[in-house]
Write a structure and sequence with these properties.
Number of domains of chain B: 2
Distance between the termini of chain B: 31 Å
CATH architecture of chain A: Orthogonal Bundle
Number of helices of chain A: 13
Strand content of chain A: under 5%
CATH superfamily of the largest domain in chain B: P-loop containing nucleotide triphosphate hydrolases
CATH topology of the largest domain in chain B: Rossmann fold
Strand order of the largest sheet of chain B: 6-7-8-3-9-10
Structural class of chain B: alpha+beta
Distance between the termini of chain A: 62 Å
Order of helices and strands of chain B: EEEHEEEHHHEHEHEEHHEEEHEEEEEHEE
Shape of chain B: globular
Number of strands of chain B: 20
Oligomer: heterodimer
CATH class of the largest domain in chain B: Alpha Beta
Radius of gyration of chain A: 27 Å
Number of strands of chain A: 0
Number of domains of chain A: 1
Largest sheet of chain B: 6 strands, mixed
Strand content of chain B: 25-35%
Order of helices and strands of chain A: HHHHHHHHHHHHH
CATH superfamily of chain A: MetI-like
Helix content of chain B: 25-40%
């Protein structure tokens, strides 16, 4: 009996220590969660604001309150009577084409740099790294001249933009090359002996093993043109038929239009965000794997 | 099924390192040839050149009389098993084995038949629907072999296929490869650094060092008549003992003098040395551990040694001895005939006597490291 008593007595400080650890961990977690919640609220406010504005039908200009007084879909239906569908299609086509072409180029480039050994391989990689350090804007003027000579500006801006987006995409090889480097070379060799060509090795062996990086590449390639403003604005050069959503919608915020188009601008903004949000929600698992996988293993 | 002929094959890397020098070898149809040597000796490089995974810098490679130097691996009709198995992780075992057949556009029902046939021979039928990661090392190796088997390729290449397995499994798989070889009845080229594998598997062994072929021969030949110190030391386990000795040419013929003991050479050895015109000189004397006789008491022509280490191997003892002039000698002593008293005496520092007959002696020139008699 007394033995048991001393036992409990001696284990009490340990218990206390244990409780203390647990408690401090709980407090720590709570603090972190509170911070995260506050940050996410700050992040979400503009989005909520825009969504609310897009459903406001009592007036089209900016107002001093947040909750709409009259709710409705007028702003959305109005969008279809404007240039918006054209801009949307422009953006979608340029993003989709860029997405496909850029992914193909990046993956082929990465595979080449990862697997082939040729004389200028290292200098080429260094050159691309250095070129990548210059801001893309530096090339804007010459690019505009070239596109203009090719007749790919203003109303024909979409193919021009695709060309600009895709042209330098090989330089974005880092992440996927890092990922490919982690796949054993003997798999390539086994497949080649089994009768596969280099191309078959890439799409039958390497790509199925690199799903995260393929999806990561697709997503980033889609996102770039989808949200691009500067180049799109420059190349479309005030021609509505060649604008993408970012340029078109921004035009509605100009002095003479803002009071008529403000709520439509918000509705357009929501429609722009929807496909990207859905894409991300479906594929975010791969996206994170792609970024971290490539970075850690590469 | 095909012959493979390598003529003056060289591999020179971009940084001017020569990995393989002037490799000449004729591999007959259905022959099992083993390339063996320490790591970095060029054996894998040679195999990869045959496979087409490495460019051939110089020389010609013929498979079945056709020069294949510039053919892609897929056009050479060879099958290969890799050390790390190289199974496609995203495919099931069935698809792994079927991969090459699908690329060749073989009809599905024939693929089914061939894959199941191979799986049956290798005993992996129940795993056909599993992914490689759900298999043990031995099972993965079987899948890798199965993948090579279904090809019915002209030449079967194996690059250290057993070195990732544990010792017990390795012995088992070694026996299975011998069986498989009988079933497939094709040309095999097998790379290993393990001389036991080389001895047990090969019809012929190619012993390599630093990119050069040191000796080519049947397991018995390379064991009995090693042409140089390297081959003598590489083949056989425990390795051959090398002792400093003198070759003396006397009126009655040649004799070897070691630590005051004189051992006359036999007629055959005398003839060869006579023909080569070898005179009295210092030599390195090679004697295999299994060819020495251990005596507990001194006798005529016995060499006195002291015991350093006594390793118990079960059926025999490996005794590490030192001779009077500090040569290290390993001898094998079967335990079955030893009395308890004799066993107890085999401890550190005690004296032992060893003898060996002339016919088991290998004589090497210390300068050229070449055998004075063989080769």
């Amino acid at each position: 009996m007394s033995n048991a008593m001393t036992n409990t007595a001696s284990s009490q400080p340990k218990m206390k220590q244990h409780m203390g650890l647990k408690a401090s961990r709980t407090i720590g977690n709570t603090l972190i969660y509170i911070m995260l919640i506050v940050i996410s609220i700050i992040w979400l406010v503009p989005f909520v604001f825009i969504v609310l504005q897009s459903f406001r039908v009592e007036s089209t200009h900016q107002v001093g309150y947040v909750m709409p007084q009259v709710w409705g879909l007028n702003n959305y239906t109005e969008l279809f009577n404007s240039n918006f569908p054209r801009w949307y299609v422009n953006t979608f086509i340029s993003a989709l084409c860029t997405c496909i072409l850029q992914t193909i180029i990046v993956l082929c480039m990465s595979y080449t740099l990862s697997r082939f050994r040729f004389k200028m391989r290292k200098p080429l990689m260094k050159l691309m790294l250095i070129l990548g350090l210059f801001p893309g804007m530096l090339a804007m003027i010459i690019l505009y001249r070239v596109l203009k000579d090719l007749g790919l500006t203003q109303a024909n801006a979409v193919p021009g933009l695709i060309l600009v987006y895709v042209a330098s995409s090989g330089m974005g090889y880092y992440v996927s090359k890092g990922f490919f480097d982690t796949i054993p070379k003997s798999l390539d060799e086994a497949a080649r002996i089994d009768g596969a060509t280099r191309a078959q090795v890439l799409y039958k062996i390497i790509l199925p093993l690199s799903k995260p990086i393929v999806i990561y590449t697709l997503l980033t390639a889609f996102m770039g043109p989808w949200g691009d403003y500067v180049f799109a604005q420059y190349v479309s050069n005030n021609t509505a038929a060649g604008m993408n959503v970012a340029v078109g919608l921004y035009g509605w915020l100009s002095q003479d239009q803002i009071n008529k188009k403000y709520t439509m601008f918000c509705a357009g903004g929501v429609l722009v965000a929807v496909p990207v949000t859905i894409l991300f929600m479906c594929l975010q698992r791969y996206y994170v794997e792609g970024v971290t996988g490539g970075a850690v293993k590469g | 099924m095909a012959s493979v002929k390598l003529t003056n094959i060289k591999k020179i890397y971009d940084n001017n390192v020569t990995a393989v020098h002037d490799f000449n070898l004729d591999i007959r149809d259905k022959e099992f040839v083993v390339f063996v040597g320490p790591s970095g000796c060029g054996k894998s490089t040679t195999l990869r050149m045959i496979a087409g995974l490495e460019d051939i810098s110089e020389g010609t490679l013929e498979i079945d009389g056709q020069v294949v130097n510039d053919l892609q691996p897929k056009d050479r009709d060879i099958a290969m098993v890799f050390q790390n198995y190289a199974l496609y992780p995203h495919m099931t075992v069935y698809n792994n084995i079927a991969f090459s057949l699908r690329l060749k556009k073989v009809p599905e029902d024939e693929i089914f038949e061939r894959v199941n046939n191979a799986a049956q021979i290798l005993g992996i039928t129940e795993y056909l629907n599993r992914k490689p990661r759900a298999l043990s090392g031995g099972q993965r190796q079987r899948v890798a072999i199965g993948r090579a088997m279904v090809r019915n390729a002209k030449v079967f290449l194996m690059d250290e296929p057993l070195s990732n397995l544990d010792a017990k499994l390795r012995n088992q798989m070694r026996a299975e490869i011998i069986l498989l070889r009988q079933k497939l009845d094709t040309t095999f080229i097998y790379v290993t650094h393990d001389q036991t594998e080389a001895m047990t598997l090969g019809d012929r062994i190619v012993i390599m060092k630093d990119g050069f072929i040191e000796q080519v021969g049947t397991p018995q030949e390379v064991f009995d008549t090693p042409v140089n110190l390297f081959v003598a030391g590489f083949i056989g386990s425990p390795q051959m003992n090398f002792l400093k000795a003198n070759l003396i040419k006397g009126a009655a013929g040649y004799e070897v003098e070691i630590l005051g003991v004189k051992i006359p050479l036999n007629a055959e050895q005398n003839t060869v040395l006579e023909q080569k015109g070898v005179s009295s000189q210092e030599i390195v004397l090679g004697v295999r551990p299994e060819h020495t006789t251990v005596l507990f008491d001194n006798a005529e022509n016995a060499i006195e040694c002291t015991i350093d280490v006594n390793e118990m191997m079960g059926s025999e003892l490996h005794l590490h001895l030192s001779s009077k002039n500090e040569d290290k000698i390993i001898v094998r002593l079967p335990t079955v005939d030893l009395t308890q008293e004799q066993r107890d005496s085999l401890t550190y520092g005690n004296k032992l006597y060893i003898t060996f007959p002339a016919k088991v002696m290998h004589l090497f020139d210390p300068a050229t490291e070449k055998s004075l008699i063989d080769g």
